[in-house]
Amino acid sequence: MEAEVLEANILLPTHLSFKRIQMSEKYPKGHARGRHWKHLKQILQAENYQIYSSNEPNYVNIESPPSMYPSKKFCDITGFEAPYIDPRTNLRYANTDVFKCIRSLPNEYVQRYLALRNAAVVLK
Amino acid sequence: MGYGGARRLADSRLCKDFKGFELGETVTIVGDHDPALMKYFDCTRSSHRSAFDGNVVYQFEIMEYILDYGFERMGADGSQVDHPILITECVCNPVQSRSKLAELLFEGYGVPSVAFGVDAVFSYKYNQQLGVCDKDGLAICSGLNTSHIIPFVNGEPVFEACCRTNIGGYHVTDYLKQLLSLKYPNHMSNITWEKVEDLKMEHCYVALDYASEVRLFQKGAKEAEEKNRCWQLPWIPPPAEEPPSEEEIARKAAIKEKQGQRLREMAAAKRSSRITELENELQGLEFLLHQLENVQENDVPSFLSETGYISKLEIESAVVRVTQSLKKAKREQVEIEEKMDPSMTEKYTLINIPDNMLSPEQLKEKRKQLFIKTTSEGRQRAKQKRFEEELDRERQNELDEKKRLENPELYLEQLHAKHRELSEKFEQRKRLKVNGTHTNESHNSSGGVGRGERLNAAQKERMRLLTTAAFDRGKGEDTFGTRDEDWQLYKLMSKDIDDDDEGQDEDEAELARVTSRLQDIDPTFVAKSEIGPFQTIVEIPRFRPLTKEDFQIILGVERFRCPEILFQPNMIGIDQAGMDEMAGISIRRLPLKGNSVEERITNSILMTGGSCLFPGMGERLEAGIRKIRPFESPIRVVRASDPVLDAWRGAAAFAAAVPFSEQIFSRQDYYEKGEDWLRRYNLRQMIAITGAFHFSQISLGQEREPMAGLTFARGLALLYGHSSKSCAYDSPNKMVIRKKFKLRDIKIRTVFRVELSLVEFGQAQLCFSLARTLL
């Protein structure tokens, strides 16, 4: 091991004395390693919060609701205020220069700009 | 991770990344990403992983690695970790996550006892001790993945009124990274996550009012220019070629001269040798001719057979040929035309004779001659026309020059106008074509004739015909083609496919000519290129060398556009409230109001968490909260003393305090009470002990109500550990009943404890609590 790496203290030794079962034994190499961890969505589903009272705070309860203010529209490319929408690509733009630019964008970039705003069409 | 005083461990940074690599062997690495060290490892097979999904731990294998690392760094050795552990978690951590973590700690490490707490709360308490904020207040904690708002009443967090939005520093960095990569696709390899995070921390700020700030930039005001920050990428200019010095030039010229001279000499030598050759040949032939005159008629063939010529005529023609080439070699003008013409007319003799008088062979001859004649005439005509055109153009140029000389400005203007017009037309046509083909790319039409390519008139016409034919049929089936007349439709369409292109070529040529003319005359003319007032996707034009500016990345609007998503998550498509609005929601959600609680709360608002380090955030929050509070309510926003590490400090302080031992639950408790109890477990924050109250309120059957007692914890200190099995309570209202029974569909071994407990709030309340523990 190079000296630099050792000094940085980022490596984990393979055998730790304070553990009852070492990691290497628990997850032997070559076997599928713990792919069965549930993701947050599944955890929340399994929690089954509906059977509990809604007064009690739980993970789902405390989530904030959608915003009351109407959303301000900003240009996708420059960030200025954008009163206009390009009908072909659904991008918002601020003035004619930006519009010219949008019309010369390849489709890949258009989709990426839309994806920034979570407005891209996802085909599944 | 850190080592608290009094031998307590507190783990406040649960968001370390983790890598596993192959280096001949597999190693595991825990820690922040450091690019300098990464080059020692081969990370093709694995990448860094995080134990979190949102702010909840879900990958316990990785969590285990992190804990390993932490314990090892803190010097744990021995057969098990012997210290009680305080772990921070998110607000309302799902029970499954909590219990798995507890299980990991107990089983894996043999920890004696564990406590869970919320990091934002620790931070608030710590700052409260420091005097930064009061007993009642609001904690605004903005972390990596989420932002929370937690109101505090009398020192206790009110979790019912807590509010969480799933926007954090991660989203800000991601947004910035995407924006930069879209704007500067050439430098995508330089725009890495770590670098962008550095940029964000260094340059981003929160604007007090986004709309007005943006307007400033849109106008292009000078302040906006100053706010632009520029990141210069490493760039080495190409070695500058020095203009060659005088002697260099002279030397090169001399060399060229010499080479030219040499070539000329070679050519001259060749020519002279050829001339001598030809002269020799000529002499030989003349000699032969001369000899021939002396020979008899009959002996001619035999005499000539030696030399290779068949008749005198041939020799004579050979002589003529050689003289001609000689003359050419000596560079004399040869009127070949004249020589040709008589021979031509000779050859055309047969043309004038009418057909019926010729034999079939002669007819063939005649046709050949006719053909040759017409072609040569055509060639001549073409030459003539070209010549005339040349003259014409010359005349035009002269006229142009005259015009230019007499009125240079007007001429220039006209030329500019013409150039503009032509380029407009050209651009438009190009764009139509480009857009047409681009909309086609997304549909990926096979065959290639999509909408864009049908834009010229002929094809439009064709389309129109086809569609009318199709639609004229009426509804129902398509009967096109059953009658023969239908196919006549195709005769109506023009056969040209790409006549549009030809027109374009002409225009292109014209445009090129005008451009070059302009470039010649006008020193200030620059070829038009599409760069607007902002930096968009700039193509580096090929005709000039790359300069320093091409390697700069300018952060202008992005500096405050990215942190804005914390306040307006709609910008990124997340449909939740922003931070200032969340404060209002949280205050509204407070279950018990009155006593000017709200004013006290807004009087001490604490910002904590890594993502609240943006400059300008305090003012923005204040302005935002002022909008939703009544007029002239006191608002004071303070930043925690160290937003990043305060949670840990608070936890450490908490752990060091004496009553800590009563907060935690031990392994036995865990085994006994199990998972469900963990759901209701909540850390009490108040240190003062005034009584022991046990809150647990559960109804019979499958339902259970959680610790509603928590909400009633107003003005009361609560500190009670569920530590003993056999609770002996002092209060007469409590009874302990032990009861065992099985549930229908759950496994055996359930231990139940039924307790009656008392909740005091000016009223006594009897409630049953049925604690079911599943092991």
TrEMBL record, chain A:
Subcellular localization, as worded in the UniProt entry: Nucleus
GO biological process, alphabetically ordered: chromatin remodeling
One term under GO cellular component: Ino80 complex
Keyword Transferase attached: no
All copies of domain Vps72/YL1 C-terminal, residue ranges: 73-102
Keyword Transmembrane helix: no
UniProt cross-references to InterPro entries, sorted A to Z: INO80C/Ies6, Vps72/YL1_C
Keywords annotated in UniProt: Nucleus, Transcription, Transcription regulation
Protein name, per record: Vps72/YL1 C-terminal domain-containing protein
Native species: Tetracentron sinense
Automatic annotation (TrEMBL), chain B:
A Pfam family per the record: Actin
A GO cellular component annotation in the UniProt record: nucleus
Subcellular location: Nucleus
InterPro entries: Actin, ATPase_NBD
Membrane-spanning residues: none
Region (Disordered): 374-402
Signal peptide: none
Major location category of this protein: nucleus
Keywords: Coiled coil, Nucleus
Domain of life: Eukaryota
Compositionally biased spans, kind Basic and acidic residues: 376-402
Alphabetized CDD domains for the sequence: ASKHA_NBD_Arp5 (cd10211)
Annotated coiled-coil segments of the chain: 275-339
Protein known as: Actin-related protein 5
Classification lineage: Eukaryota, Viridiplantae, Streptophyta, Embryophyta, Tracheophyta
